[in-house]
Amino acid sequence: MNGVPHLDDGLPYLDGDTVRGLVPPGRAVQALEDALRGGLDPETTPPRPVVDVPAGQLLLMPAFWGAYAGVKIATVAPDNPRRGLPRIQAVHLLLDAATLSPVATMDGTALTSLRTPAVSALAVRRLASPDARSLVVFGSGPQAWGHVAALREERPVDRVTVVARDPGGAARLAERCAAEGLTARSHPASDPAWHRAVEEADLIACCTTARTPLFPGRLVRDGAVVVAVGSHEPGARELDDDLVARAVVVVEARSAALTEAGDLVVPIRDGRITADHLAGNLAELVAGRVDPGSGPRVFKSVGMAWQDLVVAAAAYEAWTSRRGDLQ
User: Is residue 2 a part of any domain in this protein?
Assistant: First the structure.
């Protein structure tokens, strides 16, 4: 690969604003789809070691594809929000695949906030009705807003209901949605008034730190799409057995989901479903090899290193192109 920067030239660092400016949500979705169509196999992504430490977890996420390899080092610190800090923080190191020379570092927190909704949006692109307009979002943090923005790129969403444990956070996110021209309302999670919104929703995005199911799965109507991104632990889940058992379930990769996705690990352990219940992974969905069926559709994401790599590569290539234009 020509033009690979050397360490003694100064390794470029792309901060969060730069990453977001270089790769808008729609571009991230397309980069992910292009990689999958180009032959990227999510099942070959190395498993990520998760190390428990007193403050939370350390995650090491390596991947390789095409012209690049890379690794994201992420931290999960549950007490950080009360300190005014992000719960998840990260840095990504991007490497030239041929030489394994570092080419850039970038804000991995921004990368995570960008690629997770983009992965969900790619699944929605294949699973949701073209006229899906109503969205229920569980959670009020960065991922909740990221999913509103990304899903609007894929479907004509004009109504959003925000449900969160923190009434103030739910109200603020609803206000942000309204400021973007959406009809928006909020409910604290303790108020069952939001049940009707779930019953009527075309799209449901679960973006929380919950360890137990957020809502009765029987509320979800046939044809609705539920994306669940909040957990990567085998004992934590956002969806109940009833919903998972009657839904067509798509995952990023079977290997990762059957190890890390409590939404699936728990009902398999309890005998409600088997591993064969999974209808396909994201590559198979993009290739048109998954029948969405007539019932609910569920996309369960745990977050994988290949996604970070693809979006990081898109950011780096956009940065080098822009830099070249200025020279």
Answer: no
